[in-house]
Write a structure and sequence with these properties.
With about 120 residues, this protein is mainly alpha-helical. The protein has a single domain (about 1-115), classed as Lysozyme (Orthogonal Bundle), CATH 1.10.530. It has 6 helices and 2 strands. Strands 1-2 form a two-stranded antiparallel ribbon. The longest helix is centred in the middle third of the chain and has 19 residues, at about 60-75. It is globular and about 40 Å long. The two termini are about 15 Å apart.
Length: about 120
Amino acid sequence: MVYELLKTETGGTFDPESVGPKTQYGQAYGLAQFMKNTAPWIADMAELPYTDELLYDPLYSIELSVHYLNFLYSQYKDWDYALTAYHRGMGGLETYITRNGHAMSEYATTIQERATEFDGIAFVD
């Protein structure tokens, strides 16, 4: 699941120096594409140090993404919700659900479908 998330987040490049496009909320950085307004509280929750530069460290980025996915899945108990929240933020998830009536975004669906292709492993709730 994390492999496919990182692949999607970096457009298939797995470039730890990736910088996302400018949005109204800022930009996302590193392998796991964390925003500078989100990463510090996730690092704090995971009891990890935080500096902006650490977002470009592949191991740190992976560790942060695992903690964040674990947090989101523990909140929602559903991969569609967790992955859509990872991509859009928790507030963005609520907006997505209001607009679409569900949390099954293309982002969440793509990651889950690709993840199940590995050795026949299926991810279920």
